[in-house]
Design brief:
Trna Endonuclease, Chain: A, domain 1, five-stranded mixed beta sheet, alpha+beta, 5 strands, 34% helix
Length: 124
């Protein structure tokens, strides 16, 4: 059993690996990764990417779970997390004077399976 400190370090490492894999996956799907781990106050967006096909900026939450985790990774996206993404995105768009459409996506990784869910506001 891991101590709380060891568990946090493990989760951070797993999250970082997942975000890297998600960024590579998105690139193969035609997205251009603009930034990663963008923070605004106590809010964070894992990946900001450009969807060339739709001419949209995409704010992406990445969720990574082990192959044997009982719940799907997306099940951990709460209303609070979605609101945090929205706050961070609004600050980013304002700070960079972006006047284009944008949306919120989620990339999940569980074992060897990567899934991309577009416009995750449908979760709520």
């Amino acid at each position: 059993m891991l101590s709380p400190k060891q568990q946090r370090a493990h989760n951070t490492s797993t999250g970082s690996r997942g975000e890297g894999a998600a960024a590579r996956f998105l690139t193969t799907q035609g997205y251009r990764v603009v930034e990663q781990n963008v923070r605004y106050k106590n809010h964070e967006v894992d990946i900001i990417a450009w969807d060339n096909d739709r001419d949209e900026l995409v704010f992406i939450e990445v969720k990574t779970r082990s192959k044997h985790a009982p719940a799907h990774p997306s099940s951990s996206i709460t209303q609070k997390k979605l609101r945090s993404l929205q706050i961070c995105a609004a600050a980013y768009v304002k700070a960079h004077a972006i006047h284009k459409n944008y949306r919120f996506d989620c990339v999940t990784l569980q074992g060897d399976t990567i899934e991309h869910f577009e416009n995750i506001t449908w979760l709520f």
